[in-house]
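Is adenosine-5'-diphosphate placement plausible here? Inputs below.
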Amino acid sequence: MADANAPFRIRGETGEWEVVVGLEVHAQITASKAKLFSGAATAFGAEPNTQVSLVDAAMPGMLPVPNRECIRQAVRTGMALDAKINKWSRFDRKNYFYADLPQGYQISQLYHPLVGEGEVTVLTDEKDESSAKNIGIERIHVEQDAGKLMHDQHPTMSYVDLNRSGVALMEIVSRPDMRSPAEAGAYLKKLRSILRYVGSCDGNMDEGSMRADVNVSVRKPGPNGEETPFGTRTETKNVNSVRFVMAVVEHEAKRQVELIESGGAVAQETRLFDPDKGVTRSLRSKEDAHDYRYFPDPDLLPLELDDAFLEECRGSLPELPDDKRKRYEGLGITPYNASVLTAEVETARWFDALLEAGVEPKQGANWVVAELFGALNRRGESIDASPVSPTQAAELLKLVADGTISGTIAKQVFEIMLESGEGAAAIVESRGLKQTSDTGAIDAEIDKILAANADKVAEYKAGKQQLFGFFVGQTMKAMQGKANPQLVNERLRTKLS
Ligand code: ADP
Ligand code: MG
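Reply from A.M.:
I modeled the complex. Tokens:
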């Protein structure tokens, strides 16, 4: 069997190569309905240029005013990533020309970012806690987004939409700590999950609320697997799904290995990913920070955060996925179920409500992961839109726990709940589905079955033990699943002995 923890290697003509990955994730602060330095709206899908204030359009004399809520959300995010919060930070201008940037510069933070070093723990195999690995965060800075150019709207014209101009982004820069496509994918998923728990960013990659710049380099590991110097990296811009990030790492690493082995050298450059062809293409040679002539923005005072503000930020954080997962495991839930139940904030909220309704944790976890997820998948519904609420599910699970119905009948009752919206107890009552512990009725069915299967009875008595299950099955079937299974077992043992 392949070792899940074996290092990921690319096999080249000259031996094995290691891939090194660092991600720069741009996450829109969707928690704020206004932009970073103006009051203009940020809703997705608005008509072009309908959410542009004079500040966003960089009209002469306009001045930026920092949006407190954006800063607050970035601080909460930093805290959730166990990062150092800098009580003093400052905005800088990053100067460049592009038609989607009316100011001629982006307001960002180079020298003194709002958030410093942090960390994210990822599991590349969610069933296996030994696959846990910490990925370092270098910094999080707050910056403005640019507008968007729309080409080929008319055969000879391009248009600009400034709706995104000035939208607040957090740029979350990782350390070059990832070593495989799977680790890069797991990191992005985990980061997305944490942001969605915190509520700062909705993580909607289809709508551009989150996108990643993927930095990739390759190197030959030392003869005993020891660290060797990093190779030259390329940066593939604006990758907008977990799957694409993994594809970029995979493809870029192979391309670089082939290039180096055929005598070439990797150029430090910016590339673009073509999802249709699954390849990256060179866009431009990489610019350095000094090319942008960064300098402190004279229109903005430094940000100074006081203790009361920081306390409020910390106090407002919810229980985060890692803590929740540990709490669930402490309740006896399997590591796999705990990981599935905490991966998405909506699932965790639903499950917490189920626990609050008094359901036994292990029973509840098994039921949600097997039955509820199964049903939602079949129906193409998200847990938010689940036709059965946690309170309704708790009613069903209690009927199983107290022996009113069997697990088999519970599945039928659940199906009826999904279709009819009726409550579990009412369904059991009206359809006569209660489990029976009527020994007389059970004995009567057992007698009939043993009489009809005299040959099997003889075989069983001659030592074919596995036939016991057959008799149980037949009895349950004859009783339409309503017999108390424990009693059926007991009675069969007595009668067959
Ligand atoms: P820039 O802002 O110019 O893109 P940074 O030094 O801030 O450059 O690094 C950006 C990202 O590149 C970080 O996520 C970092 O982890 C990653 N990175 C740096 N060096 C390498 C390397 N040799 N291989 C892969 N990723 C790297
Ligand atoms: Mg970069």
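Short version: The mean pLDDT is 94.
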